[in-house]
């Protein structure tokens, strides 16, 4: 995973990108004992979905070998940073991006 000022990239077989300007918030969640970072998009963004819909589809999204979790969940199991630290960093970048708008 690579984090820039305006966006971040999740590196897997298929690299996917999230722009901070499109996000309302990041949050911690768990699915089957795995800690994940959830992405709640702004309501006017094409990726916005109700939380219950995201949770229902979460398990299937994680099975996608090319881009697990894309575009709503960031798997944290293989990252070198603890989930809470990553969450804090993403929310800090989100606040910085919002103040630039």
How many DSSP helices?
A: 2
Range of helix content: 25-40%
Q: Judging from the principal axes of the Cα atoms, what is the shape?
A: globular
Gap between N and C termini: 24 Å
Determine the oligomeric state from the structure.
single chain
Structural class: alpha+beta
Strand count: 6
Strand order, main sheet: write it out.
1-2-3
**What order do the SSEs take from the amino end to the carboxyl end, as H and E?**
EEEEEHEH
- Give the low-pLDDT segments: none
Instruction: Name the average pLDDT.
Output: 86
Radius of gyration, whole Å: 13 Å
Outline the biggest β-sheet.
3 strands, antiparallel
Bin the strand percentage. 25-35%
Question: Could you characterize what this model shows?
Answer:
The relative contact order is 0.22. The protein contains 2 helices and 6 strands. With 101 residues, the protein is of the alpha+beta class. The strands form 2 sheets. Strands 1-2-3 form a 3-stranded antiparallel β-sheet, with no helix packed on it. The protein is globular and about 35 Å long. The two termini are 24 Å apart. Strand 1 and strand 2 form a beta hairpin. It has helices spanning 51-63, 83-100; strands at residues 2-3, 7-10, 16-19, 23-31, 34-41, 73-75. Helices cover 31% and strands 30% of the residues.
